[in-house]
Amino acid sequence: MVLKTGSLSETTECRFVAVLDEYAFVGNERWCTVRLLKALLLVMGGFVLIMGVVGLLLMVGQSSIKSLSVEEIDFAALRDGVYAGWFEGGRWSNGVEVTVSEGEVVAIEITKDMRFASKKTSQEVIDRVLRAQSLQIDAVAGATITTTAYLKAMEDALSHAK
């Protein structure tokens, strides 16, 4: 790496040389060290800034989903059929197909999964709904928003079966 600075009459040059696994500066060592540290701090600061922006973008919509409630639906009163439902909520957007037969929900399939979805979490939500025959289930631990998003898509699907 070569760093240069100075006026037209004098130029300070710094070369960072790696020879036989030993690193050394050629030139003004103090100036080279300061320039290298500034460059490293700039790169690290940029990385932290980018990660912060990405983190914020991933959380958009989280608070609005937390406050949603899931409607209580009487599964026994539902008409037989396969019903599609959708929930729009940023990275938690998802689509499902719910199959109703003889007053029971017999199958739930995720047709469009959310970004960064955990197959284990989605399967646990589906299993809980099928066991309880209700959308009024406990959220999967550590996945309250994800659980709510899946339940809202199922609620949308079942609203067509009433």
The percentage of residues in β strands lies in 25-35%
Question: What spatial form do the alpha-carbon principal axes imply?
Answer: rod-shaped
Class by helix and strand content?
A: alpha+beta
Rg, rounded, reads 28 Å
Instruction: Report the top-level CATH class of the largest domain.
Output: Alpha Beta
> Which stretches are low in confidence, meaning pLDDT under 50 for 5 or more residues running?
5-10
Distance between the termini: 70 Å
**CATH topology of the largest domain, anyone?**
Sufe protein. Chain: A
Topology as H/E string?
A: EEEHHEEEHH
User: Care to count the β-strands?
Assistant: 6
Helix % is 40-55%
Largest sheet: 3 strands, antiparallel
Key traits:
alpha+beta
Question: In a nutshell, what does this entry contain?
Answer:
With 162 residues, the protein is an alpha+beta fold. The protein contains four helices and six strands; from the N terminus they run βββααβββαα.
How would you describe this protein?
The chain has 162 residues and is an alpha+beta fold. It folds into two domains: 2-44, no CATH class; 63-159, Sufe protein. Chain: A (Alpha-Beta Complex). The protein has four helices and six strands; from the N terminus they run βββααβββαα. The strands form two sheets. A three-stranded antiparallel sheet has the order 1-2-3, covered by helices on one side. Strands 4-5-6 form a three-stranded antiparallel sheet. Strand 1 and strand 2 form a beta hairpin. The N and C termini lie far apart (70 Å).
